[in-house]
From TrEMBL:
It is found in: Cytoplasm. One of its GO terms (cellular component) is cytoplasm. This is Regulatory protein RecX. GO terms for biological process: regulation of DNA repair. Modulates RecA activity. Belongs to the RecX family. The lineage of its organism: Bacteria, Bacillati, Bacillota, Bacilli, Lactobacillales. Keywords: Cytoplasm. PANTHER family: REGULATORY PROTEIN RECX FAMILY PROTEIN. It holds the Pfam family RecX_HTH1. It comes from the Bacteria. Residues 106-146 form the RecX second three-helical domain.
């Protein structure tokens, strides 16, 4: 047998029921009124358990409503959130069912909203978005429903913007190397080969030979210094090999060595 020693207001629409054993029960205002709980009231063990169960459901439902007020959530996100808040397993299931009845929880709608948001605000392709939706617990049918809103045209536009940004990042590389890295970057972002080819075709990146030669000079001089202890022939071969590995054009590489030879003659 327990006795209610006091009842205090908690956050939101909740109250704390303080028991003579020192235990505290968190309940909603609805449970407080429905069970007619008052200070000094004696509670049987069965009543305490009943209040705990009612409190778990009410508290969990209110927490879920608050959690959903910020943005849409998947069923798995709600279940994980309630588990983290130590809501009883049976109540977690009941809360999900109740939220579905209230049209506040629907993985198909969540998938559509999630895809639309990432289309507008991120550089992610369909494959990466699909992986994220799987981690959020969505089934294949709901995932594919959402991805239908990410059309080919929209994928190409996002891929173009991502490619332009990446190309600026790789401007210190050879043109061929930079282009290859841009393609790899787009694949890692979740775009397929067809979208990548279309995006790069529309962008029509062109090599700037003056810029390419400047890059060769910087890379070549680094290699030249790195291999300074080798004899002249081996040093020359090491630098040439290094520049070829970086995918610079042979004509520009030769131009670099012609300039280097003139420097040495002076």
């Amino acid at each position: 047998m327990e006795t209610i020693t006091k009842i205090t207001k908690d956050k939101g629409q909740f109250y704390l029921i303080w028991l003579s054993s020192g235990e505290k029960l968190r309940v909603s205002e609805d449970t407080l009124v429905r069970q007619r709980l008052l200070k000094g009231q004696e509670l049987s063990d069965e009543m305490v358990e009943k209040i705990k169960k009612a409190g778990s459901y009410d508290v969990g439902l209110q927490m879920s409503l608050n959690y959903l007020s910020y943005q849409l959530r998947s069923k798995k996100e709600i279940l994980d959130y309630l588990k983290e808040k130590e809501i009883l397993a049976d109540d977690r299931k009941k809360i999900v069912i109740r939220l579905e009845e209230m049209n506040l929880l629907d993985d198909k709608i969540f998938s559509e909203s999630y895809v639309r948001t990432l289309m507008r605000t991120s550089d992610k392709g369909p494959k990466m978005i699909e992986q994220q939706l799987k981690r959020k617990g969505l089934n294949d049918e709901d995932i594919q429903h959402g991805l239908t809103f990410y059309t080919m045209d929209e994928q190409v536009e996002v891929a173009k913007a991502t490619a332009e940004k990446a190309m600026r990042r790789y401007r210190t590389k050879s043109f061929k190397d930079a282009l290859q890295k841009v393609q790899m970057h787009l694949m890692q972002k979740g775009f397929n080969r067809e979208v990548i080819d279309l995006a790069l075709e529309e962008l029509s990146f062109e090599k700037d030979e003056d810029q390419e030669l400047d890059v060769i000079r910087k890379e070549g001089d680094k290699l030249w210094e790195k291999h300074r202890k080798l004899d002249p022939y081996k040093r020359l071969m090491k630098v040439k090999q290094g520049l070829f590995q970086k995918r610079f054009d042979s004509d520009l590489i030769q131009q670099y060595f012609d300039e280097k030879e003139l420097e040495n003659e002076e």
